[in-house]
Design goal:
Layout lengths: L1 H28 L2 E7 L1 H4 L6 H4 L1 H13 L4 E7 L17 H9 L3 E5 L10 H4 L3 H15 L4 E6 L10 H23 L2 E4 L2 H4 L13 H16 L16 E3 L4 E6 L4 E9 L2 E9 L5 E6 L5 E12 L14 H9 L3 E18 L1 H4 L8 H11 L3 E5 L13 H8 L9 E3 L2 H5 L3 H13 L5 E5 L13 H7 L15 H10 L1 H4 L18 H7 L9 E5 L8 H20 L14 E4 L9 H14 L3 E4 L16 H14 L11 E7 L5 E6 L10 E4 L5 E3 L1 E5 L2 E5 L8 E4 L20 E4 L2
Parallel strand pairs: 1-2, 1-3, 3-4, 4-5, 6-12, 12-15, 12-16, 13-15, 16-17, 17-18
Antiparallel strand pairs: 7-10, 8-9, 8-11, 11-12, 13-14, 19-20, 20-24, 21-22, 21-25, 23-24, 25-26
Length: about 750
């Protein structure tokens, strides 16, 4: 009986094989279907040739190129003006594209909705229904294909030029982004970030809402990466390279990217012996991070990262068996390795600003002395130079410069070099001398310093876009033709981008970017550093903002806020928040420009008011005929003294005389009390005035930490000022030879 039973089963099995094979061939004959669901951005509104340039069309081409033709079928089910909200003004679920998308019975569904829900007809009244309505949309696609893979998208940006940006769109857009993230988590679907890759590219959005063909291509690449897990392989921020310095004696978080579904293994070794190793895994978006342990100062070490694809059978939900070509592609994925040789642990600093920070050692008057110091420092000092690829001189840029500037490739990442006469010669003189003093004061600690200063750059160009959108949105709008920027800077920008402003030019682009643009240098020079674990910042900028003291005071606060938020993100994990990133900046020097005294005094007050902020005075080394004075060595030294005192806790005098109070004395005198006042010396520079506001030179008498001022021309004086000229020869110093700042104060 058993034999007959086995024979019967075998006959039935053989009879079933042709039918099973036919079903398998039928399944394999149908391409994997990808439904792109959305609004006008998905549809391709505004594209002259949406049949070629709409993001679903570009996505189809990418999939065909990677996997072969006829493997995928991408459907564009976008409808302009559609809302996610079912009580919105044009609900997607009431439109024919929704029914067509359901009939498509997609294997993968990519949903990008929400932009039109920012309309005042929609979000204010019906926002509580957004999450339930989104879940209902997802459930609709799961109902027609229970095995469907659903991916939902954080919305593309809406820029400040949008007519409703400040009247609600900005705020509602941010609220909807949060709701979309909640939907992804609650529904167990993959979240695609379409916002971040495009938020730094306003030039790709002619109407502030819809991307042009280049923007649509970035959308397609982002969606392609999310669908396939191909994010371009193992990568680190460019500054993570051989010869670099990483922080000593603290937790260190290193972030990178790789293809999805990879393990990332690190090995830290010295002299061929493993010191530390660990492993992590990439997220769906390809990001990964891992901690390094506390390391003592020293080196050199070798740090190796290896990305290894995980077994593809772990991802059958995303790569179903009926589409074996997907698994085959995963199996072909190769192991990737990145190695950082000559790695040192020490202290890492960032030097930034405009031309006086940029000014090179070989342009200054202490060249021979600086080069001799460079030769003796060697491996103790590591330099990373990031000069601009194109100068903002009085020239018209070529079309190629305009193009790579728009692509945020304006900075030249030149790699790490140890100190030598050759490497130091073309490095910032201020930054070198700052680092030199640190090396000499911390002989067992390797010092690394990055310089990315850009001549003529504005404060607003270094502040991130999100901060400006929320704190100072008006400065973003048509900056070149507005009055927030200094006329000189706006004029130079216009000259540089003249080709882009010519309607007959192939580079014509009314949204052409420039380094002076608000947010540009944050996007091109700060963001590419990643959340770098820097010790602190030295900053020398203000010449291009000195026309408007009040606006600069607001912008400088935003600059510090922006950078502290950016570089502090590495601490958002299990260990304790690090103290605020210290800022050490250089006050504007002396130059016969009428707005500079008030600007220098504003900088003094900012240093006194802002936390973890200190100022070095440079007015005594200025050049009346040249904004780029050549005596930079003492400026770097003064910044280093401040850092040694406030970051490293050394006991030393790091500041010049600082006014503490002003009181009226006998016989129409004023008495000014100072901090940092041991050994005061002064022969000139003070003026005083009565309530009429007319200032006269004051006679000076030094009494310990106080200076008594008088003038036969002033009765009942109420205000004193010091160094109140664009170019000043005022000479108040303390025993260490450190100069006092320009200031103006009233009687208390």
């Amino acid at each position: 009986m058993k034999t007959k039973h086995y024979l019967l089963c075998a006959m039935l099995l053989l009879a079933a094989v042709p039918a099973w094979s036919a079903r398998k061939k039928q399944a394999l004959a149908r391409p994997l279907r990808v439904a792109c669901v959305g609004n006008s951005v998905t549809y391709g509104y505004g594209l002259a040739n949406r049949g070629r340039d709409a993001y679903p069309v570009r996505l189809q081409a990418m999939l065909d190129s990677a996997y072969g033709v006829n493997r995928f079928e991408v459907g564009n089910f976008g409808h302009s003006g559609s809302t996610l909200l079912r009580k919105g003004h044009r609900p997607y679920m009431n439109l024919p594209e929704f029914r067509q998308a359901l009939d498509f019975k997609a294997d993968w569904v990519v949903i990008h909705l929400g932009l039109n829900d920012t309309d005042p007809r929609n979000w204010p009244d019906w926002k509580e229904e957004f999450i339930p309505d989104y879940r209902a949309l997802i459930d609709s696609f799961r109902a027609v294909n229970p095995e469907a893979r659903i991916l939902i998208c954080k919305m593309t940006p809406i820029f400040d030029r949008h007519s409703r940006f400040q009247s609600g769109t900005r705020d509602w857009h941010a609220q909807i982004q949060q709701a979309i993230a909640q939907v992804a988590q609650g529904a167990g679907v993959q979240l695609i970030d379409l916002f971040t890759p495009l938020h730094s590219r306003p030039d790709l959005f002619p109407d502030a809402l819809h991307p042009n063909p280049e923007g649509a291509l970035i959308l397609a690449k982002t969606v392609y990466g999310a669908l396939t897990g191909d994010h371009g392989g193992l990568r680190l921020p460019p500054v993570y390279s051989s010869g670099m310095v990483l922080p000593r004696d603290e937790h260190l978080l290193i972030e990178g990217s790789a293809n999805a579904r990879c393990s990332i293994r690190r090995v830290l070794s010295k002299d061929g012996k493993v010191v530390d190793e660990g492993e992590t895994f990439t997220y769906a978006d390809g990001s990964w991070w891992m901690e390094l342990p506390h390391m003592k100062a020293g080196g050199p070490y070798t740090l190796t990262f290896t990305a290894t694809p995980l077994p593809p059978e772990n991802y059958r939900f995303y790569y179903p068996e009926k589409y074996p070509f997907l698994l085959e592609n995963l199996k072909k994925a190769a192991k990737q390795t990145l190695t950082i040789d000559s790695l040192y642990f020490g202290d890492l600093w960032l030097a930034s600003g405009q031309s006086n920070m940029e000014l090179r050692v070989d342009q200054c008057n202490t060249l021979d002395q600086d080069l001799a110091d460079a030769a003796r420092l060697g491996q103790r000092l590591h330099l990373y130079n990031m000069p601009a690829r194109a100068r903002t001189d009085a020239i018209e840029w070529s079309d190629s410069v305009l193009r790579y500037t728009n692509e945020l490739r304006h900075m030249d990442f030149q790699g790490w070099k140890t100190a030598s006469p050759a490497s130091v010669r073309i490095f910032s003189d201020v930054a070198f001398n700052f680092a030199r003093v640190l090396c000499d004061s911390l002989p067992d600690v390797p010092i690394g310093i990055i310089c990315n200063a850009v001549g003529g750059s504005t404060t607003e160009s270094w502040v991130d876009r999100t901060t400006l959108e929320w704190e100072f949105p008006n400065i973003l709008r048509d900056w070149r033709n507005g009055d927030f920027g200094q006329a000189w800077a706006r004029g130079r920008m216009t000259q540089n981008i003249a080709h882009a402003l010519d309607k007959e030019s192939p580079a014509y682009n009314t949204l052409q970017r420039h380094p002076y643009d608000p947010s540009y240098l944050f996007e091109a020079a700060i963001a590419p550093l990643g959340h770098l674990p820097i010790k602190g910042v030295i900053w020398y900028q203000g010449e291009s903002n000195a026309h408007n003291v009040e606006v600069h005071a607001q912008l400088f606060r935003l600059l510090e806020q922006s950078w502290r938020q950016h570089f502090a993100r590495r601490w958002n994990c299990e260990f304790q928040q690090k103290p605020a990133l210290p800022f050490y900046f250089v006050q504007l020097s002396s130059l016969p420009r009428p707005s500079w005294p008030a600007f220098r005094d504003s900088q003094r007050r900012l240093a006194a008011e802002l936390p973890d902020t200190w100022m070095a005075v440079s007015s005594d080394v200025g050049d009346a005929a040249d904004v780029h004075y050549r005596t930079k060595r003492p400026v770097g030294e003064r910044l280093a003294l401040l850092a040694l005192a406030h970051t490293y806790g050394h006991t030393l005098e790091s500041e010049g005389p600082s006014p503490r109070s002003v009181v009226r004395g006998q016989n129409n005198t004023l008495q000014v009390a100072f901090d940092h006042a041991a050994g005061l010396t002064c022969t000139r520079g003070f003026e005083m005035a009565a309530s009429d506001g007319l200032f006269y030179p004051a006679d000076i008498q030094i009494n310990g930490d106080k200076i008594v001022l008088s003038s036969p021309s002033v009765k009942n004086p109420v205000v004193v000022r010091y160094g109140w000229k664009g170019f000043t020869d005022a000479d108040l110093r303390n025993a260490q030879g450190l100069p006092a700042s320009t200031f103006q104060m009233r009687v208390e």
